[in-house]
Amino acid sequence: MDMEELLSERIKNTPPSFIRSILKTAVDPEIISFAGGLPNPISFPETSLLHSMERIVKKYGSKCFQYSITAGLPELREYIAKRYNTKFGLNLSLDNILITTGSQQALDLIGKVFLNENDEVILENPSYLGAIQAFSQYKPKFYQIELKENGMDLEQLKLNLNNKIKFIYTIPNFQNPTGLSYSKQIREDMANLLKDKNTVLIEDDPYGDLQFEGSRLPYIGAGKLKNSIILGTFSKTVTPGMRIGFVISENKEIIRNLSVAKEASDLHSNIFSQYLIWDYLINNDIEEHISKIKTLYKKQSSAMLNAMAQYFPKDVKYTTPQGGMFLWVTLPENISAMKMFPKALEKKVVYVPGDPFYIGRKDVNAMRLNYTNADCQTIDEGIKRLGMLLKEKI
Ligand SMILES: Cc1ncc(COP(=O)(O)O)c(C=O)c1O
Fold it and tell me: How many domains does the chain have?
């Protein structure tokens, strides 16, 4: 039997992750990888987590290992609601929170709950490839709206808003892949634009906590738009391997429908991880921990920026992130980062070419670089190798 005949249109329609295939090829220890989106493992609070593990097993015993409720551990949901209320002046209770298996699962559930085939979805241009992958399974029509230096191009958004747009997917803080953020003004203008529209606004925010300096901006929709969703995760502030993320919505109808989809998908997220994260959060100073991660990543991003200033040809442009884990490099127009990739591999440095962050574009003259998973010296060496290659090409 031909496998093509057996497979669903859904899976045929879903692009495999370029990053995961790179990670497989990049096993040579001499390869310097700026490709993945891995947090620096030195930021994992292993000792405190070990204490938490012992404590939860002693204190809660079989509850840590038993089936549990779909919405997630009430104590953890309560904690999250309080944290967002304090930070952003929201009015959330635990019923506004759904714990998910990473925010990646939330993306899948959102697709499942809102999308029929050919429904329309708005994304930033470029957008997070994992979201493109998750939503693609539900076969929507994508519209990508230019992401500018200070946020989504609202004129373009206005032109594309119609009553078939089910949701708008944004990453307002230190976006993956570009590292760009929305300004206060754009946030306000966007909320005004969407106020009377029957559409959902998703703000996927794994990186907001990792702002190097200054205080945080309010969300675009939370507290203002009826159908607003925030996605959060402990992947970048505690550890990604525990796979604990969450959905926040003031609209309980949204939470209820996502819970039904989640129940059908995995009953509930790993309850041991939920107890562990919760115990860790209430027994440690998470703000201090996050502040250490920010100091580390700021240093690493500076190392990358300094190296790029030194080794890259002058007509290569790049963003200067104020937080998060990525920056975005734009090459002269005729250079495809994808075509250049095998040469980079020869020089033992890898990155993610721009293509998978766009719908239906090939040979994009841009690449995403991650600066969090290599020390400063390695970053310098990797950028030097990439700089040599770029000088050969240009
Ligand atoms: C924008 C964005 N959303 C979601 C995710 C998924 O994160 P997780 O499932 O680990 O919470 C990532 C991970 O890199 C991301 O960059």
Answer: 2
Q: Same structural domain for residues 176 and 319?
A: no
Q: How far is the CA of 152 from the centre of ligand 1 (A)?
A: 20
State how far the Cα of 324 lies from the Cα of 313, in Å rounded to an integer. 25
Best mutation site among 128, 135, 205 for ligand 1 pocket (most ligand atoms within 8 Å of CB): 128
Distance CA 258, CA 131 (A): 16
Mean pLDDT along residues 131-157: 96
Ligand 1 centre to CA of 4 (Å) is 30
Phi, psi of 195 (to 5 degrees): -50, -45
Ligand 1: which residues within 6 Å by Cβ? 37, 102-104, 128, 130, 171, 176, 204, 206, 233, 235, 240, 245
- Range(s) of the domain holding residue 87: 46-283
pLDDT for res 228: 98
Same domain, 228 and 312: no
**pLDDT per residue as tens digits for the range 33-63:** 999 899 999 999 999 999 999 999 999 999 9
CA distance 378 to 369: 13
* pLDDT score, position 25: 61
Q: How confident is the model at residue 241 (pLDDT cuts 50, 70, 90)?
A: very high
Task: Look at residue 2 and tell me whether its pLDDT is greater than 90.
Answer: no
DSSP per-residue string spanning 329-365: EE--TT--HHHHHHHHHHTTEE-EESGGGSSS--S-S
Last residue of a domain, one of 237, 260, 283: 283
207 CA to middle of ligand 1, Å? 9
C-alpha of residue 106 to centroid of ligand 1, in Å? 10
Mean pLDDT, rounded, of the chain: 95
When mean pLDDT is compared across 8-17, 143-152, 366-375, the lowest value belongs to: 8-17
Q: CA angle 322-176-79, nearest 5°?
A: 80
Pocket test for ligand 1, best of 103, 169, 273 (most atoms within 8 A of CB): 103
What CATH number has the domain bearing residue 356? 3.90.1150.10
